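Changelog-adjacent note: as of this version, every example in the card shows the full chain rather than a window. The one below runs 220 residues end to end.
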Amino acid sequence: MSKRGLVSTIFTIICCVVFVGVYTYGYFQDKKLLEECEKYDLNGQNAVDVINSSERVEVVKKTTSLRRTYYIFVEDKLIATVTGKFIHPLGDTFTMKDLEGNEIISEKEHIQLTSVTKSATVSDGTKVKQDVFKDFARRFKYHLLDKDNNEYAYTDGNIFGVPAQVFVYNSNDEKIFVINGDYEIVNRGYTVVKYQDSDCSMAKAVLLTTMIDTIRDDTD
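Full-length structure tokens:
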């Protein structure tokens, strides 16, 4: 074996060992998270009402999954999950469900090869849009539009910082949410904090959080 071939083989082995190690660690972290967490006792309430009335929600990404999966916690108790599709050539779909499998809210991303905008449609008929040239750069900016395409909120923040931080503003430029990322690589998590009531629900802010994480992964 040539020197170059030996170096290539060693490098490949090291990469495989690192991958298996990270995957194994993530698997046991996922398992530990689910085994130790307490499920939220709805006590006759709807999960969507609990989430939307909460001032603080935690979003934790599952590490070992063929499709994007996020655990949603209120008061440190598991209340819902958000999942994406395994294969999504025409745009991902993120769906939030309670622990009984009932859909709370979802959003479908649209691939528009001939447009300079990226967009998604939420299950309540509202939309999320981004002008690729004007809004991206190093800052995460999305426009939240109502059913009549009027902007009622927008996001702005640095998703590539350590930690990531994104603010959600209403049409009066007042902060209504902050989405803070943590420092973790495995089981990466976010905290969504509500400043005030608005037309943007907490459930929708959580969906925005999964979109943020998707962009972070795509640019890592």
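Structural remarks: The CA atoms of residues 96 and 102 lie 8 Å apart.
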